[in-house]
Design brief:
The chain is α/β, with parallel strands linked by helices and 197 residues long. The protein is built from 8 helices and 6 strands; from the N terminus they run αααββαβαβαβαβα. It folds into 2 domains: 3-51, Helicase, Ruva Protein, domain 3, CATH 1.10.8.420; 74-192, Dna Topoisomerase Vi A Subunit, Chain: A, domain 2, CATH 3.40.1360. The protein has helices at residues 3-12, 20-32, 35-51, 68-71, 86-95, 122-130, 145-158, 184-192; strands spanning 53-54, 61-62, 76-83, 100-104, 136-140, 165-168. β3, α5 and β4 form a beta-alpha-beta unit. The longest helix has 17 residues, at 35-51. The termini are far apart. 15% of the residues are buried. The mean pLDDT is 90.
């Protein structure tokens, strides 16, 4: 194999979910692209990596000091949805059902990976709560062991704000799941979060 092709494949494999075969397919596709298109792709990636910032208010990705969500005066500033990553924010935003503010933690507590509470943007969230404008915090983080640990830690920190309502997104059995294949923790959450019909 060409050394140049091998180098491109090795670099592409650094991306999550890209194995050797996918990297080779992508490399061959790039080779067929117009030179200007490849240059534009390379420049966009480089500019993104070097020029992107994190919003000073919610820790979302932004081109400016404040992201478009935090700059939008039409949003409900009394509600904040706490998520792990920017991708989670995008997933919720794409539903078009939530019109409040966000707070991106930047991960979850994971001692095995060396991530502790001080590595997350929890203090920034507490600083926002001190201002007194927020009435409800919606916690929308994963149901993994690390997510549950983070949820427990957040709940202990948010007890310092008794006037703030703290909720979590509904957890439980997904649509189309068969009960016999669902794990015990998910069934427990489903039972605890049941609602009247």
């Amino acid at each position: 194999m060409s050394k140049l092709l091998d180098n491109v494949c090795m670099e592409l494999q650094r991306l999550p979910g890209i194995g050797r075969r996918t990297a080779l397919r992508l490399a061959m596709h790039i080779l067929k692209m117009e030179s200007e298109t490849v240059d534009s792709l390379s420049e966009s990636i480089s500019r993104f990596r070097h020029d992107i910032r994190y919003c000073l208010s919610c820790n979302n990705l932004s081109d400016e000091a404040l992201c478009p969500i935090c700059s939008d005066e039409r949003r409900d500033r009394s509600t904040v949805c706490v998520v792990e990553q920017v991708g989670d924010l995008m997933s919720i935003e794409n539903t078009g059902q939530y019109h409040g503010m966000y707070h991106v933690l930047g991960g979850v507590i994971s001692p095995m990976q060396g991530v502790g509470p001080s590595d997350l943007k929890i203090d920034l969230l507490c600083d926002k709560l001190l201002a007194g404008e927020i009435k409800e915090v919606i916690i929308a983080i994963s149901t993994s062991v690390e997510g549950e640990t983070t949820l427990f830690y957040l709940m202990s920190r948010l007890k310092a704000f008794p006037d703030v309502k703290v909720t979590t997104i509904a957890r439980g059995i997904g649509f189309g799941d068969e009960l016999e294949y669902v794990d015990e923790l998910t069934i427990t959450h489903a039972l605890l979060n049941r609602r009247e019909l």
